[in-house]
Specification:
By secondary structure, this protein is an alpha/beta fold. It has 13 helices and 14 strands. Bound molecules: beta-D-glucopyranose.
């Protein structure tokens, strides 16, 4: 107990300290052979999740808790294996961002069977009642911010709108698209935008609220699967088949930074595209450089330090025998999961310096062209 309370103070201090050197994947120097917290992240191939690893390491550098971080490399089988490895090490709490929200059910059920507390991290694990808590950003607000940015930057009417979405195996992809649709749909209905690349979205353009199935039918057409090269191929196909009326000054809903950069690159090389506005999310360093260079219009900054702090705070509460505080609930198809939700911030050229550099999230020296 004493150890735990002390460690919480250290954890909080460490979370507030930015830019500390990370330790190895084994955080903490704590006592026995038992693993306090196991952390499973979806893939090292996307900078977004490497950010999470780094922020966990920063937060845990001085903590007394034993932790271990494993990556699933975009495979549900590897994810299950990771969870089993951590179970065999005696973990008490599992923090997991699933690769595929539904497929992760069997991994967390195995953990639950061992009495382990399961915290779904950023992405909701669906269709199982084996999730204890969920820490997340406000994902509908992420999509709304993306849609609002396109609306705010739209001039005139009849603007071609290219829609892209995340992977249908990720519940967040639905929430992001739903949020964007909330804001974009009235502006499609009034003729400000004309959908350029989705007959399914076109068929639903007069509906302000879409069912999961309807969202799924649009996602089926415009998914990137969170894969930048799939996004690139889709964008190329769309521009090849687009007529002259769907070129010129266009708006692009890109679901995250990785896909935004590859879609932007395709649009930038089409001579008939005179200008484009494109969204993103995650504040990945490469996209911050794209924003500085006017190649990407905006990103949604999700402060991973807060998510890490919330997830570890919950884990510590559980280890101490306390009930974590939650602020919302999410329906995962099987149950209402108690959740803690965090706000997001829109970043573009105007506020990149104040939000991301002056705030200490990144260093100015990591970018070219920032004062
Ligand atoms: C996360 C995003 C991320 C995407 C692709 C989503 O679940 O919320 O931050 O860009 O997955 O990894």
């Amino acid at each position: 107990m004493g150890k735990r309370s002390k460690a919480l103070g250290l954890l909080t201090a460490a979370v507030l300290t930015v830019g500390m050197a990370g330790c190895g994947s084994e955080g903490g120097s704590g006592g026995g052979s038992e693993l306090d917290v196991g952390i499973v992240l979806p893939t090292k191939d996307e900078p977004r999740w490497v950010q999470d690893e780094t922020r966990f390491q920063d937060a845990l550098a001085d903590s007394d808790y034993t932790t271990e971080i494993l990556f699933s490399q975009g495979s549900s089988a590897k994810e299950k294996e990771n969870v089993e490895t951590l179970i065999s090490k005696g973990m008490d709490v599992l923090i997991i961002a699933p690769h595929d929200g539904a497929a992760a059910g069997s991994a967390v059920e195995a953990a639950k069977d061992e009495g382990i507390t399961v915290i779904s991290y950023d992405r909701l694990i669906t269709d199982t009642d084996s999730v204890d808590y969920y820490v997340t950003f406000d994902s509908v607000a992420v999509g709304e911010a993306q849609g609002q940015y396109l609306v705010d930057n739209a001039e005139g009417s009849g603007i071609p709108l290219y829609l892209y979405a995340g992977a249908a195996s990720d519940n967040n992809a639905f929430l992001f698209f739903e949020g964007a649709w909330n804001v974009l749909q009235p502006k499609i209905a009034d003729g400000t935008f004309v959908i350029a690349n989705s007959s399914e979205a076109e068929a639903l353009k007069d509906k302000s609220e879409l069912s999961r199935e309807e969202l799924g039918s649009i996602l089926g057409q415009v998914t990137t699967n969170w894969d930048p090269s799939e996004a690139k191929n889709k964008a190329e196909t769309h521009l090849t088949s687009a007529g002259a009326d769907m070129k010129g000054n266009v708006s692009i809903l890109a679901p995250n930074d990785g896909t935004a950069r590859s879609i932007a690159d395709v649009f930038a090389t089409d001579g008939a595209i005179t200008d484009y506005t494109i969204t993103g999310q995650d504040a990945e360093k490469a996209s911050i450089q794209y924003i500085i260079d006017s190649k990407q219009s905006m990103t949604v900054f999700k402060d991973v330090r807060t998510l890490v702090e919330d997830a570890m705070g919950m884990a510590v509460d559980v280890l101490d025998g306390n009930t974590p505080e939650t602020t919302a609930t999410y329906d995962n198809g099987s149950m209402e999961v108690n959740a803690k939700q965090t706000d997001v911030i829109v970043v573009d050229q105007e506020n990149v310096q104040s939000e991301l550099v002056d705030s200490g999230y990144y260093e100015a020296s990591e970018f070219e062209g920032l004062e």
